[in-house]
Design a protein that fits this description.
Layout (H helix, E strand, L loop, with lengths): L3 H21 L8 E2 L1 H8 L3 H13 L3 E4 L3 E4 L4 H21 L6 H20 L2 H17 L4 H13 L1 H5 L5 H18 L4 H10 L2 H17 L2
Antiparallel strand pairs: 1-3, 2-3
Helix pairs in contact: 1-3, 4-7, 4-10, 4-11, 5-6, 5-9, 6-7, 9-10
Length: 224
């Protein structure tokens, strides 16, 4: 006998993942409203499922729900983006400088395998794969610093800033830049230049930050 509770959870997850992918693929822009009626018509599920899916996305920091205004894709102010990335830069630089170089070949091979999967996702246009595998690559790199608490803080910020990164995933130039940076990081892990490694780890996140700030600027001008 099927468990109705399990079925509801499965449907909630399915709807949430579909909405999340729309955000990742750039089909829904930051700040866009998520109307319940449209979601009901699109997915053919109950209002309870739609609201549960939106609650799940809210918990993940992707969606904001406001009283009497409904749900919308989370957006950050320019000041928030700059402040969040300032913290990310400090933490990632410190983590990179803690990595003892050169890294053991077995660890580099693990990262190379992850990068190979990432590049396959880029070649096949698998944006969901790009998002998930990119996060896996960076978690693997910073895990080499040997400080689990520092790694967790970096991972938390990576999660919080998901809406900032998501809008750039469909950009081919951004994807190729990410591949080049990943390959450079792998190369530096085999060497002895900790400062160069730290600089690449910091610069790597600036392109998507700048792209989001540019989006905010265009949106601000368009609303005048």
């Amino acid at each position: 006998m099927r468990d109705p509770t399990a079925d509801q959870q499965s449907e909630t997850t399915r709807v949430a993942r579909c909405i999340e992918e729309d955000i990742i693929f750039g089909r829904i822009e930051p700040g866009a409203a998520l109307r319940e009626e449209r979601l009901l018509a699109r997915f053919g599920v109950s209002r309870h499922i739609v609201r549960a899916a939106l609650a799940l996305l809210e918990h993940d920091g992707i969606v904001i729900r406001e009283l009497n205004r409904g749900a919308r894709v989370r957006t950050f102010s320019a000041a928030e983006v700059k402040e969040l990335h300032e913290v990310r830069e400090v933490l990632q630089r410190h983590a990179a400088l803690r990595i003892r170089l050169p890294v053991e070949q077995s660890e580099i091979e693990k990262l190379e395998e992850i990068e190979s999967r990432y590049e396959t996702a880029v070649e096949t246009g698998d944006l969901r794969g790009m998002q998930d595998i990119n996060s896996e690559f960076h978690r693997g790199v910073f895990a080499l610093c040997g400080n689990a608490h520092l790694c967790n803080m970096i991972a938390d910020l990576l999660h919080v800033t998901f809406p900032v990164r998501a809008n750039s995933l469909g950009d081919k130039a951004d994807r190729q830049r990410a591949i080049a940076d990943h390959r450079l990081i792998l190369s530096l892990l085999s060497g002895n230049d900790s400062w160069a490694l730290a600089e690449v780890c910091v610069n790597h996140i600036k392109a998507r930050r700048d792209a989001y700030l540019e989006f905010l600027e265009k949106d601000h001008k368009g609303s005048r």
